[in-house]
Design a protein that fits this description.
By secondary structure, this protein is α+β, with helices and mostly antiparallel strands. It is built from four helices and six strands; from the N terminus they run H-E-E-E-H-E-E-H-E-H. A six-stranded antiparallel β-sheet has the order 1-2-3-5-4-6. Strand 1 and strand 2 form a beta hairpin. Helix 2 packs antiparallel against helix 4. The relative contact order is 0.19. The model has no long low-confidence stretch (mean pLDDT 95).
C-alpha cells in the first residue's frame, strides 16, 4: 500500500507527467531532476518501501535486480557502466521516502559536492554491493 503524497508512487503508477525512460513489472526508470553528472537516472520500485533500511535479507534479490536493470538500461542507451556509480542513500539523508537507486555516469565528471553526496562507504550512501551486504547481514 502506498502512502498518500508520495511523489515516487505517483510517478511509478503513471499519475505524474514525469517521462518514464523504462518500465518493468517491478520498477520504473526516469531522469533525476538534480543530475550529479551527464547521465543521472533513478530506478524506483513500484511497490512502496520507505528506504533500504526497512528491507531485510529477503529483499536482497530485488536490490540486485534493480542494479542489473539499471545497468542494462545504461548499456541500451550507450552509457558507460565502468565509470558509473549505482547506490542508495540511507535515512535520514533521503529526499523522497520511497526506495530508489541512483545510477550516475560518468562518475569521473561529478563535481565536488556530488562526490560528497554520493560517496560510497559513507554512513549516508551505500553503493549497490554495500547495500546487498547490508541486507545480507540483517
Amino acid at each position: 500500500m502506498s502512502p498518500t503524497n508520495c511523489i515516487f508512487c505517483d510517478i511509478s503508477s503513471g499519475k505524474s507527467e514525469t517521462i518514464l525512460e523504462c518500465e518493468t513489472d517491478e520498477f520504473v526508470i526516469f531522469k533525476d531532476i538534480r543530475p550529479a553528472s551527464k547521465h543521472h537516472y533513478l530506478i524506483v520500485t513500484k511497490e512502496h518501501f520507505d528506504s533500504l533500511k526497512v528491507l531485510d535479507k529477503s529483499h536482497e534479490k530485488m536490490v540486485l535486480c534493480m542494479e542489473e536493470t539499471l545497468k542494462s538500461f545504461f548499456k541500451s542507451k550507450g552509457i558507460c557502466t565502468t565509470d558509473a556509480l549505482f547506490g542508495f542513500h540511507m535515512p535520514p539523508f533521503i529526499s523522497v521516502k520511497h526506495l530508489h537507486m541512483h545510477g550516475i555516469s560518468p562518475r569521473s565528471e561529478m563535481g565536488f559536492l556530488a562526490r560528497l553526496i554520493f560517496k560510497p562507504s559513507a554512513p549516508w550512501f551505500k553503493c549497490a554491493k554495500e547495500a546487498q551486504a547490508y541486507l545480507n547481514a540483517k
